[in-house]
């Protein structure tokens, strides 16, 4: 059931962006009892639309299969929680939010962000399709609808008298297979003078910094500002401001409003970033076609580096079990021959095995027990936080490896 037409503009997809071979679903962690079972594998093939320059993967699995029981809990990164706390402070101040306003978050996960609005006594509603994750939010007292967001759910909420004065979504837009229905839903749910904020990794940074590991099946689309601007315009929504963020290797936060709402002037930052994308070649097919060569070079560099470590009789393990790490490991063919194990702070991942590579996941204390020579940081976007948490590896001369944008040793 692969995608044949662009998710944004419905034009035929004929240009390959990058082909990462075959891979399991990046968040489909393997239990011990299933180690002897086969894993479903799918082509990880991405295309770029020559009309709107949206980068997108072929879809082989339904969102219901991918997200209904999800292994990712947002609250296990201290730096991400701080990012969200600061966001809440800034939005509350900038838009004078109070108990008279309704905050709605799409893909609210375990309540990692809405908890900070709740502390301010501002009404919140979460929308989260993964029941196991939503349950944690509910335990925090955050009202959560367990469902996929789209125009049907938006209409239902609207009929119940719910409209969003601030409608937000962090790293959800990439996970949406039907973009037009999703944005139509946001249009429906947004109050007359309401504000949309969406954060997502910036495709321009992906290209600049060789962040191919952020491509996986759960991420259906990869956005430039120009692509998302076109998508919003198609639904009579206006992007009136944009911020560039350091999160996830370089993200952008867009601010949207109804086209009829002229109370919020369009910032010059929108035109400035659109121009920056033009200068960077984001509206030229050739830019996208040149990317694959960088990906192949990094694969060879990383594998060669790990082989050298092993042949010297030294040990290397991983830190983290993120989806991006699974793309990296599976594309590069890295298994336990190269990486003895990995560790993760999330108890929901400990005791499981990485999909495809079958590398075991332990608690971080395992590092102190085995004293590895090298720790490969798989969630490289959190390298500063992780290096602080694992500073003790210096005691035995341990070093960190950061794989993206190129293999770098820190110690």
Count of the domains: 2
Query: What would the average pLDDT be, to the nearest integer?
Result: 94
**Biggest pleated sheet:** 7 strands, mixed
Strand order of the largest sheet: 6-5-4-7-8-11-10
Which percent range fits the helix content? 25-40%
Name the CATH superfamily classification of the largest domain.
Answer: Vaccinia Virus protein VP39
Q: What's the CATH architecture of the largest domain?
A: 3-Layer(aba) Sandwich
In the CATH hierarchy, the third-tier topology of the largest domain is known as Rossmann fold
Strand content: 15-25%
Structural class: alpha/beta
GO molecular function: methyltransferase activity
Keywords: Methyltransferase, Transferase
Domain C-methyltransferase: 246-405
Domain Methyltransferase putative zinc binding: 6-67
Question: Explain this structure to me?
Answer:
The chain is α/β, with parallel strands linked by helices and about 400 residues long. It folds into 2 domains: about 65-290, Rossmann fold (3-Layer(aba) Sandwich); about 290-410, NAD(P)-binding Rossmann-like Domain (Rossmann fold). The protein is built from 14 helices and 17 strands. The strands form 3 sheets. The chain has a 7-stranded mixed β-sheet. The protein has a 6-stranded mixed β-sheet with strand order 14-13-12-15-16-17. α5 packs parallel to α6 (about 180-190). The longest helix has 21 residues, at about 290-310. The protein starts with 14 loop residues before the first strand and ends with a strand.
């Amino acid at each position: 059931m692969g995608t044949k037409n662009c998710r944004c503009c419905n034009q035929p997809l004929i240009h390959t962006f990058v082909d990462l071979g075959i891979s399991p679903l990046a968040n489909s962690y393997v239990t011990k009892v299933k180690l002897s079972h086969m894993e479903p594998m799918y082509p990880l093939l991405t295309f770029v639309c020559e009309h709107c320059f949206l980068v997108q993967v072929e879809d082989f699995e339904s969102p219901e299969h991918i997200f209904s029981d999800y292994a990712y809990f947002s609250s296990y990164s201290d730096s991400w929680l701080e990012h969200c706390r600061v966001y809440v402070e800034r939005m509350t101040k900038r838009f004078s939010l109070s108990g008279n306003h309704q905050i709605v978050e799409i893909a609210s996960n375990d309540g990692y962000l809405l908890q900070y609005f709740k502390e301010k006594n501002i009404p919140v509603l979460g929308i989260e399709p993964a029941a196991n994750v939503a349950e944690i939010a509910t335990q925090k007292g955050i009202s959560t609808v367990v469902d996929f967001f789209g125009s049907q759910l938006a209409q239902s909420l609207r009929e119940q008298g719910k409209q969003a004065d601030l409608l937000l979504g962090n790293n959800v837009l990439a996970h949406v297979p039907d973009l037009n229905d999703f944005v139509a839903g946001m249009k429906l749910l947004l109050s007359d003078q309401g504000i949309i904020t969406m954060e997502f990794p910036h495709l321009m940074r992906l290209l600049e910094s060789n962040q191919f590991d952020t491509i996986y099946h759960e991420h259906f689309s990869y956005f430039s500002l120009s692509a998302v601007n076109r998508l919003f315009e198609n639904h009579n929504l206006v992007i009136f401001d944009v911020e560039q963020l350091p999160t996830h290797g370089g993200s952008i936060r867009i601010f949207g409003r109804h086209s009829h709402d002229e109370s919020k002037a369009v910032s010059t930052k929108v035109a400035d970033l659109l121009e920056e994308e033009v200068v960077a070649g984001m509206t030229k097919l050739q830019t996208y076609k040149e990317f694959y060569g960088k990906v192949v070079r990094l694969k060879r560099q990383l594998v060669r580096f790990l082989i050298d470590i092993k042949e010297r009789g030294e040990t290397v393990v991983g830190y983290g079990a993120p989806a991006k790490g699974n793309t990296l490991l599976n594309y590069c063919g890295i298994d336990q021959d190269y990486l003895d194990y990995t560790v993760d702070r999330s108890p929901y991942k400990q005791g499981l095995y990485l999909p495809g590579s079958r590398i075991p996941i332990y608690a971080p204390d395992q590092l102190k027990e085995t004293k590895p020579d090298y720790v490969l940081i798989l969630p490289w976007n959190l390298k500063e936080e992780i290096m602080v948490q694992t500073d003790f590896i210096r005691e035995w001369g341990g070093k960190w490896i950061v794989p993206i944008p190129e293999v770098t040793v820190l110690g």
